[in-house]
Design a protein that fits this description.
4 helices
Length: 247
């Protein structure tokens, strides 16, 4: 009789312990299955509680943050694939409007165009939909541009130019004479910050610059309503990045 009592007591204890760890176990199995069976999701099925409309500077900061989760989408909410391609081309033209670059980007040169959902892991209500687009023009210039699905604004840009293109008509950082000196790299970083100021219509300052032989790291600060949003990037002999977090 005592044996049966102790057996039931032991079984009850095991059941209690098992039930305590069950939710975590089920969650782990579910996550594992999701990782092993990844599928693109429809933007219309997203049910996250969203925060009030994000400012442009907040959208820029979210894209550059390392503390995010990115989920592939079949399409956006404000734009479809064709609309995103056309918008990316127009925004690149705006970004370089004050420069006499020999770029020839067009919708026909778009090689990749995909939507994604970006979530702040610390505050999931802070999220947005982006489009990541890659295009190569007739001069061999390659642009990897991230635009916001709602506003269409460029949130991140990586530009690699081809050998046929003279990037800056005044002779600074052209395709055959770029990255030869600290002064040339600094001039490029300064030029990028100036283009950002014109494009975003906000005060932008080249706040930090570090030359390292074959490349330079820079930080351009955007100012709005008392907030400062750092835009990190790298300048190389044949490319530059804008809003790419340098860890």
């Amino acid at each position: 009789m005592k044996f049966r009592y102790y057996l039931l007591l032991t079984a009850a204890a095991l059941l209690l312990v098992g039930s305590f760890f069950l939710p975590n176990t089920v969650a782990a199995i579910t996550d594992s299955r999701r990782l092993d069976n990844f599928e693109m999701i429809d933007s219309q099925s997203i049910s996250f509680d969203t925060a009030p409309e994000l400012e442009l500077t907040e959208r820029i900061a979210l894209v550059a943050s390392p503390n995010t989760e990115i989920l592939a989408l079949k399409t956006g909410q404000a734009m479809n694939t064709e609309m995103a391609k056309e918008r990316a081309v127009r925004e690149l033209e705006r970004f370089f409007s004050d420069e006499r670059f020999a770029f020839a980007f067009d919708v026909q040169f778009v090689e990749e165009c995909a939507a994604a959902f970006v979530i702040d892991l610390e505050n999931p209500s802070v999220n947005l939909i982006i489009w990541e687009i890659t295009m190569t023009d007739t001069y061999g210039n390659v642009a990897n541009v991230t635009i916001d699905d709602e506003t269409g604004a460029i949130l991140k840009l990586i530009l690699r130019w081809g050998n046929k293109n003279n990037i800056f008509p005044d002779g600074i950082n052209n395709a055959t004479n770029s990255g030869q000196s600290d002064e040339e790299f600094n001039a490029t970083a300064l030029r990028i910050s100036e283009m950002m100021a014109v494009y975003y219509g906000l005060p932008v300052t080249l706040a930090d610059y570090q030359f390292s032989g074959s490349l330079a790291y820079y930080r351009a600060d955007i100012f709005r309503d008392g907030a400062v949003i750092p835009m990190y990037g790298v300048v190389r002999e044949s490319s530059f990045t804008m809003n790419e977090k340098i860890l």
